[in-house]
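Quick one:
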Amino acid sequence: MTRRFPLTVLGLVALPFLAGWTPQIGDPPTAPKVAPKTPPKKLGLAGSGAPRSWKSGLSVEPTSREAARVFYRTVYTASEGQPVEWTGNTDLGVAGTTSASFKDATALRINWYRAMAGVPADITLDPVYSQKAQKAALIMSANGKLSHYPDKSWTHYSDDGAEAASRSNLGLADNGPDAISSYMLDPGGNNAAVGHRRWLLYPTTEKMGTGDVAKQGTHSPSNALWVLDSAPGPRPEVRDPLVAWPPKGSCRTTSSSRAGPRPFRRPISARRP
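Output:
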């Protein structure tokens, strides 16, 4: 089902595809055919037992233009400009890791989008998910292509990396917060159902994991974002009857820092996650 809302722009918009650049994100991951055996969790705020809702973590009412403007300037912009400080090596097959501030910025970018969409914006990064996702990002960068099911013929293949690839949004040419914005843009005819965006905004998800590789020589930067939480619980309360992107109200839509600001004033279709 598609619902359309007019988009009120808070200033100018950065949309790289308007400047001739399109993120490389392939197809979204698919949910496992067999549900995990782990019993559903009782969702709530840590240490409180309160029901999880759209007010968990970050929250905002974008129907208030001023609230949306302040939220963008204080939260979204705080997720920009953090150094990746990648410790790996693509040629040698070392997955490495990234700085804590870069991971925090990636989680903050995720939660900004979720808060604007009216779903719980309390996502945390699971260290096990992130460790495996790091190996998946290495595989994608080393091979210069994307697959949710790489086999042992792929350079720097690992079982952990293959597992993460099957449970992650995957992207080349972007990493960290910029990759999150590319998934929200979700371009390409193969992404008409905006699957990457739907996984990012899936209300029941509590934990994700991020793996990020920096550009090295001819190897592109890459991201693997583990989005299939192993033990999702019941659907929490959301802000609006329809979880849509962009949301009703005022929303500054950006996708990456790769392009300069560009005006964008036409309606955008939004789909339910």
